């Protein structure tokens, strides 16, 4: 946003020193409007004065050069050699004196001799003064200015080159910063001044605009669409002051109608568009323009449209278009069409003032590769409450400068919702910001300063009944930004100045540090890395798919949805790595996923992929690749989970669409399923072009951390080292194949107390020696008494009780 300092000073009254370019730029930057540059326009015309061409003669030695005698109000006239074709005697021109520097063309004027004729100075064109020029040749002040300044006077002020322009970077949450009125309110609040913004003249009464049902739905997305009809206009060049304001903002003047719509957009932030209503009627072969023919819809695939810049576009259904007789006449919120544009013959216009949904304008602009001043404002969001006021301001200017007459206005808008006031508590503000430092004294920010700061932004404050704070009604222009109490507190801090608040420590002082859950998560990350997996970090925005939550205003159409899983991006990364020649891809990711249920809930997941091999040598496998098996990969995950001291039970899983039905397990934590582990389904592996042995797993992170940080696990238990030997026994039992080893271990541990110290599964067998539907599971059991050495008889008693419990509870038979 380019902000003219002169224009800003017309809208704001305040201390002259505070409105100087340097201090103002510093205050704006500290307040969140970063000033990228300050352009001094006066430097463009430094040393350039008004001159009068007394005589012009052809150059004796060059056909295209002229020798001019120029009067600059000094005792002697200057002899200047000029190469412009439009130079002649009897005109006033800008003259750059010897020693002047013209930054626009990087030229310093020196005495010269051109083809044998001395030249002292240069007659300048507008381009050489850094101004936009329609044609070639020198600038003729008699044609440019209503009144030519005296000879020898500086040219800069007459051409608007006595100003300074601030280049501001406007963030997405501050659409009000894209208007001079919004910047004026901000500056007034910063410097303690007052704004001089007058309410525009009321143009016409509103009547319903007839729209079809489909069009009405599109309008509802933005909330407002209005047309004001004006007749009797006279198209001409805009007044010089208007042209200069547009040029300082970086907009090229065109004619008085178009320039007024651009001026109002700069002033209020509301883009407007003027259609030549007579040309609309001719295109549709109507005797006169019909409002019923106006519509709003998504473009058809391949539909042709020629924009104002004479570029032909083939539209897609992403583009939102304004239509007349079902023909596109404008890209809504982006750019108008060439066939309906205002030209020299225009006498009647339809002035469009609307609010389109930001996401619709963003998609339209992206679909045709256009980004305009209008689209940049619509994309950030506009308040509906200011739209008709902007149209009224434009109508007032059109009446004044184009002799326009209003013949009617038609309006369709969504019912307005009342603005609910925000509660601002005095204690919340003081506790968050702390005291204000005044020399060596510290005190809380006064109520008067708080009220003054928020009132300067256009907020209305009412004292609460209990006296604890205020009820703040936010102006429409700031509704997108100020939505919570903390937003109001931030505005007070920003406008008062963060550097005015004292640095202080929290009261009371409390020790910091990571929570047990944070420590457990860091420990888990380290262990996964130690197991050979690399941590990945993928985008949380993904392409469209069933069940995913769409964003209202995505930056990219291809990434406009929230992810509902982590494994999709990990598998894609594995495919890319293997296709690029890598032998394997072992990675994990911890991140949020989002479900499209009623609550739109988010949850933290741990997901990982073990694909291919990662080894430092191949001599042990004769140079052949040897990716980990299912059980080896499960051991890698278990190696990482050991750091959390969580017992995890594996249960067979056969119905998961992503996993091999015979090589998948459900992971159970504290008796509840909290994830899965398994080999990728052969069909999925073939579809993704991945090895058949690829392993993938997923776990609910919150459940893991909750289990890991329970007091009995999180607080380490210290025990002395054993000083007596242990006795180990193996136990093999025959059970039904549906019996899980976890069930057997649970019975073993309970029945073996207090002598049983450790039990683990060492073998599982199914084969011809056993009956159908049976399997053998062998366990290694370790017995120990901390105080003495066990006898064989004592061990045998404990061992027998375990066998009896297995036989009684699970029908297990000792394998002979």
Write the SSE topology:
Layout: E1 2-4, H1 5-11, E2 12-13, H2 21-30, E3 34-40, E4 48-58, E5 66-71, E6 78-82, E7 92-96, E8 101-102, E9 107-108, E10 112-114, E11 117-119, E12 122-123, H3 141-144, E13 164-169, H4 180-191, E14 194-195, E15 206-208, H5 213-222, E16 224-231, H6 240-248, H7 256-268, E17 272-276, H8 277-283, E18 294-298, E19 304-306, E20 312-314, E21 320-324, E22 327-331, E23 335-336, E24 349-355, H9 358-368, H10 373-380, H11 387-402, E25 405-413, E26 422-425, H12 426-433, E27 436-438, E28 441-443, H13 447-456, E29 460-463, E30 469-473, H14 485-496, H15 516-530, E31 534-535, E32 541-542, E33 549-550, E34 561-562, H16 567-579, E35 584-594, E36 602-612, H17 630-641, E37 648-652, E38 659-669, E39 672-680, H18 682-688, E40 695-700, H19 701-708, H20 711-714, E41 727-736, H21 741-751, E42 756-765, E43 774-783, H22 792-810, E44 813-814
Parallel strand pairs: 15-25, 31-35
Antiparallel strand pairs: 1-13, 2-14, 3-13, 4-5, 4-7, 5-6, 7-12, 8-9, 10-11, 16-24, 16-25, 17-24, 18-21, 19-20, 21-22, 22-23, 26-30, 27-28, 29-30, 32-34, 33-34, 35-36, 36-40, 37-38, 38-39, 39-40, 41-43, 41-44, 42-43
